[in-house]
Write a structure and sequence with these properties.
about 190 residues; mainly beta; Jelly Rolls; 2 domains; 18 strands; globular
Length: about 190
């Protein structure tokens, strides 16, 4: 079965040890922090700890729960991650500090190693059938319910289409975060 329940994914320390994350999927299977092509996780942010650095990695982040935080990147840019489910892209090697807007937050993360993959994080919120093409590697049910070939997803569930194309169905008031990835030939 390729539905992953967030509650079944153990919380592990961030690469820098200053937060916690739950890995939903990694490619290739079993890859570590230094050799993944792509990785999807849900992080718990409960302090103003800096983000871990990932050289050569493009990162996408979207707020799932909480009031969010303001990210300050070492190039002087800042970004208020306070709109739920709105993806923000930034380079993994950037030094990023944060200031919480309130209490703890939970966010969704897609990481792509530049030498191995290209991709994007998109949102689906139109009810009804959605086309799953071969670029979709993971669908995360952020709100509502999603029906897949492997069963019904609840909030916090992820589905790995595993190369199958076809359709999924989103109920009314559903929002899904979709990781789209193209592996590069090496």
């Amino acid at each position: 079965m390729s539905i992953i329940r967030l509650r079944d994914c153990p919380a592990v320390p961030w690469k820098n040890g200053m937060g916690r994350t739950r890995e939903l999927a990694v490619h290739p299977a079993g890859a570590g922090m230094e050799d993944f092509a792509w990785r999807v996780s849900v992080a718990e942010v409960d302090s103003a700890a800096p983000f871990s650095s990932f050289d050569g990695v493009d990162r996408y982040i979207a707020l799932l729960q909480g009031a969010g935080f303001t990210m300050t990147l070492d190039d002087g840019r800042s970004h208020a991650l306070d709109t739920p489910f709105a993806p923000f892209a930034f380079p993994g090697e950037a030094k990023v500090t944060i200031a919480l807007n309130g209490g703890p937050t939970r966010d969704f993360n897609l990481m792509l190693r530049r030498a191995k993959a290209r991709g994007e994080l998109v949102t689906w919120e139109d009810p009804g059938r959605q086309v799953v093409d071969d670029a979709v590697v993971l669908i995360y049910c952020a709100r509502g319910h999603v029906d897949t070939a492997d069963g019904r997803m609840q909030p916090g569930d992820a589905w790995l289409p595993a190369g199958s194309t076809g359709r999924v169905t989103l109920d009314a008031e559903t929002l899904a975060l979709v990781a789209r990835v193209q592996l590069l030939g090496n």
